[in-house]
Amino acid sequence: MQDREPPLFSFGIIADVQYADIDDGSNFKKTRKRYYRNSLKLLQTAIDAWNVEKVKPSFILQLGDIIDGFNKTHNASQSALDTVLRECSRGPPMHHVWGNHEFYNFSRDALLSSALNSKCHSGQLLDNHDFYAYHFSPAPKFRFVLIDSYDMGILGHGESSDKYQLSLKYMKNHNSNEDLNRPPAFAGPEFNGGFSQDQLQWLDEVLTKADKMQERVTIATHLPVHPLATEPQALAWNYPELLSLLQAHRSVVCYMAGHDHDGGYHQDPATGVHHLTLEGVIETPPDSQAYGTVYVYEDRMVVKGNGRMRDRELMYPEGLAG
Prior knowledge:
Blueprint: E1 9-14, E2 25-26, E3 33-34, H1 38-51, E4 59-62, H2 70-73, H3 77-88, E5 94-96, H4 100-105, H5 108-112, H6 118-121, E6 134-139, E7 142-146, H7 162-174, H8 197-213, E8 216-220, H9 239-247, E9 252-257, E10 264-267, E11 274-277, E12 290-296, E13 300-307, E14 312-315
Parallel strand pairs: 1-4, 4-5, 7-8, 8-9, 9-11
Antiparallel strand pairs: 1-12, 2-3, 6-7, 10-11, 12-13, 13-14
């Protein structure tokens, strides 16, 4: 895809690094290899490449699971996080999404006080709520919204909290595994997390303002919400509610997520919204890659993928182009 005019700006995308200083392993089903140490090398080469691009990315979207849950069992959570954050600091500013592996390693309070709280350290608009979500505008008429797909769930919440108890009840009704963070035998989204009604209301308000300002909005989080952009076991719990919310707002052009290491894509015909699920670094062989750079234009976004991540042209829905 050749573009004759320069982009308005660009940004990088990467997901599911899941670094750990341990030997290679496999996924739950023992069907895929996971390259725990090599994932750091792929992150390093991605940052090296972003640093020398002709149009250097304005920022990077890191879509969750930056370190692996095995770090917790090796008492290496903080050291692993420090290692990946040292690499991240060499490149453009990074906006961090929180995934399940962040919560395997840290409590929600610990994450809020860490460098993974890019809401706090970005200098961008801060909102007073108990979920990890914020938005920023890197250029006029463009807005990026990071949302918390583990706002509801048993991960990260204290056992005495209302959200934990409500989530535990939901999971026990849908998942027969003793380890509730392991997918049920018949794959479904119940072992993941979801969005509270408070967060959905907050997002509705953000998008309503974006509609009025005629902004083009990209939403970033860890869990996908469109069944045709991922496998069923990767979906957020209440994905239909999030989809309905997107369908009610004309400003949204793209929804980006991770979690499903195979990646995926679907354009919703009802809205024109592009649902892009990023391939995971952790299951990417050492001789390949899994990151991208997105070039933003008046009428489209162009994804230049590397390795497993393919190139895509994402035209804005009718009425938002130009």
